[in-house]
From TrEMBL:
GO terms for biological process: tRNA methylation; tRNA wobble uridine modification. Keywords: Methyltransferase, Transferase. The lineage of its organism: Eukaryota, Metazoa, Chordata, Craniata, Vertebrata. Residues 1-72 form the Methyltransferase type domain. This is ALKB8 protein. Residues 112-123 have a biased composition (Low complexity). Pfam families: Methyltransf_11. PANTHER family: ALKYLATED DNA REPAIR PROTEIN ALKB HOMOLOG 8 (PTHR13069:SF21). Residues 89-127 are annotated as: Disordered. CDD domains: AdoMet_MTases. GO terms for cellular component: cytoplasm; nucleus.
Amino acid sequence: VGCDRSKNLVDICGEKNFQAFVCDALSVPIRSGSCDACISIAVIHHFSTAERRLATIRELARLLRPGGMALIYVWAMEQEYKNQKSKYLKEKNGSKDTEEEINTGTAQRPLSDQMPDSSSQDSACSEGLIDSKDKGCHAQPVEDSRLPVHTNRTSFHSQDVLVPWHLRGGTKKKGESVDTVLFPAGSKESQELSPVFHRYYHVFREGELEAACRSLDCVRLQKSYYDQGNWCVVLEKL
């Protein structure tokens, strides 16, 4: 059984005869202790405070039966680890992924491929969302915001960032269940489209996810590891 905040994603699951429903990760309408296993991929890094991020882990643990397991993936601040660059950093301008549509049906692709994809100076520059005097546009704050705008396919310089996305309003094609398509900033399609939206991310430092998990007395940390620019943990419900 799957759940997501996006109704469009859930609708796609329904069309494929999968069981899914819309919900908030802070309050999942499933009975406590009823799940053998839970997976949270690229979700928790979108919550804006440490308290809310911890609450999502606690909610995930609530769903598990004793002995049940949970797998969590979050985006890492360290995109270069043990002298190896992540796939996110390696795929710069010219890669085939920069022209691939990022839409509400890309959940089949690897996690690293689902990350925002760009070789441009932040698209926010052209949209006038940041100070035009900063010609480099590298991790500059959005107007009236203290959060920096991340330059895609570069290392992170802040844990709390906004990542630019282009949204296209379009006509529904045959077989499509959604009316909008997201393109990574800097892609060929995005240069012709507007507007630009900025999505919040909190990228995790090494040890941060493990520390949050260890603060909960209802789970045991079974495994933690780094995987292509993501920090990952496996938890067991006590």
